[in-house]
């Protein structure tokens, strides 16, 4: 049969999500690696009934609570099943065949995937070997020929940030060229810098955030996109019938009443980060500074990198071993409380000792 798909799936790399990760120490996908306190989960679950599951989602309570907590209007927000589909809806609305998008490289992989899926070309601004970003090159690349510029802050996978002054320059240059700007704040509040309070000042900027990282709800798929009322009403035109599940609404509303656990987790990750950096330093491994809940450890010898990644996997500790430039000589470890960091540091130390390389 001659089906004629419109999206360019042919050129899109297909990322298979790894499974079988339950019960392991998961330091490979930057989730909340400790999980929310079990008693809190039980408390939230006790509010769910057969009716909560049988009924189509009623999303209003979460819009209301989220708007209050962010000091925005409900009309400034659109919920989505994770920040990833929120990002996809922005592409769906603004990016089409033959368009250009300005993207740092490397950045969140789906920025590139969606560019190709919707038929656009990416103008890539490559990070330097020292993880510096050529900010002038980003500004220079913004022109009337561009449809979208996307910046994750902190960026993944580099863990680096740019300051508010630069982001304002980007948004303002984009504004005068009729370009929409995406600021991806998936790693908020590990890094507290944010453009969210300015969504009403710039009608060409949106900010995406997620409940998957610090908030510990990755499995529920919950995120949102914030923007001016006019931009959000445009995005709602490409919204699915129900943007999130009723269970996600329930947990999202619940966690916004218990943000003290999120604050505690962020503080614990800060402690875990210092601990891990110190332990890696003792082993003679440099670490890149990071503003997110993951850290890159430089291990120039490929054989040692592989031995560590594989040796940890054998101990049921998952990390990321293979990465592209400029992080090709690094392993990436998601950060968590010191308890979890002790396990990974001890694992690495044992493997290094057994290889006799240090
Ligand atoms: C920078 C960035 N943006 C967005 C996402 C998507 O997260 P989610 O769809 O779970 O909200 C991720 C996930 O790793 C990310 O690193």
Give a structural overview.
With 358 residues, the protein is α/β, with parallel strands linked by helices. Helices cover 39% and strands 15% of the residues. The protein contains 12 helices and 11 strands. It has helices spanning 38-45, 50-54, 60-70, 83-94, 109-117, 135-141, 164-176, 229-235, 246-256, 259-282, 302-314, 338-355, and strands at 25-26, 77-80, 100-105, 121-126, 146-152, 180-184, 205-210, 223-227, 294-298, 317-318, 330-334. The longest helix is centred in the last third of the chain and has 24 residues, at 259-282. The termini are far apart. Bound molecules: pyridoxal-5'-phosphate. Pyridoxal-5'-phosphate binds at residues 30, 82-84, 108, 152, 156, 184, 186, 210, 212, 218, 223.
Primary descriptors:
358 residues; alpha/beta; two-stranded parallel ribbon; 39% helix
Give me the secondary-structure topology:
Layout: E1 25-26, H1 38-45, H2 50-54, H3 60-70, E2 77-80, H4 83-94, E3 100-105, H5 109-117, E4 121-126, H6 135-141, E5 146-152, H7 164-176, E6 180-184, E7 205-210, E8 223-227, H8 229-235, H9 246-256, H10 259-282, E9 294-298, H11 302-314, E10 317-318, E11 330-334, H12 338-355
Parallel strand pairs: 1-10, 3-4, 3-5, 5-6, 6-7
Antiparallel strand pairs: 2-8, 7-8, 9-11
Helix pairs in contact: 3-9, 4-5, 10-12, 11-12
Bound molecules: pyridoxal-5'-phosphate.
Pyridoxal-5'-phosphate binds at residues 30, 82-84, 108, 152, 156, 184, 186, 210, 212, 218, 223.
């Amino acid at each position: 049969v001659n089906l004629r798909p419109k999206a360019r799936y042919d050129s899109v790399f297909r990322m298979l999500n790894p499974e079988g990760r339950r019960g392991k120490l998961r330091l490979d996908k930057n989730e909340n690696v400790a999980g929310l306190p079990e008693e809190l989960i039980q408390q939230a679950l006790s509010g769910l009934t057969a009716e909560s599951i049988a009924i189509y989602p009623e999303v209003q309570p979460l819009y209301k609570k989220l708007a209050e907590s962010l000091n925005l209007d409900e009309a400034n927000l659109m919920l989505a099943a994770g920040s990833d589909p929120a990002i996809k809806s922005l592409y769906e609305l603004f990016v089409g065949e033959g368009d250009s998008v300005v993207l740092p490289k490397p950045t969140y992989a789906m920025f590139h995937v969606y560019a190709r899926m919707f038929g656009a070309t990416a103008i890539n601004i490559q990070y330097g070997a020292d993880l510096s970003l050529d900010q002038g090159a980003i500004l220079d690349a913004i022109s009337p020929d561009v449809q979208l510029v996307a910046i994750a802050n902190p960026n993944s996978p580099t863990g680096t940030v740019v300051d508010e002054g630069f982001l304002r320059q980007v948004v303002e240059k984009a504004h005068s060229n009729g370009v929409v700007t995406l600021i991806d704040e998936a790693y908020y509040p590990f890094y507290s810098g944010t453009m969210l309070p300015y969504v009403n000042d710039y009608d060409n900027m949106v900010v995406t955030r997620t409940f998957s990282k610090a908030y510990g709800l990755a499995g529920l798929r919950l995120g949102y996109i914030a923007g001016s009322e006019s931009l959000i009403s445009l995005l709602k035109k490409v919204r699915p019938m129900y943007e999130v599940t009723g269970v996600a609404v329930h947990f999202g509303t619940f966690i916004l009443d218990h943000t003290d656990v999120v604050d505690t987790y962020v503080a614990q990750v800060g402690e875990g980060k210092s601990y891990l950096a110190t332990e890696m330093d003792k082993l003679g491994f440099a670490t890149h500074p990071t503003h997110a809940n993951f850290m890159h450890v430089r291990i120039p010898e490929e054989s040692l990198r592989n031995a560590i990644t594989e040796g940890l996997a054998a101990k049921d500790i998952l990390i990321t071993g293979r990465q592209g430039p400029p992080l090709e000589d690094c392993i990436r470890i998601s950060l968590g409380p010191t308890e979890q960091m002790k396990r990974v540091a001890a694992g690495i130390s044992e493997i290094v000792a057994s290889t006799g390389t240090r």
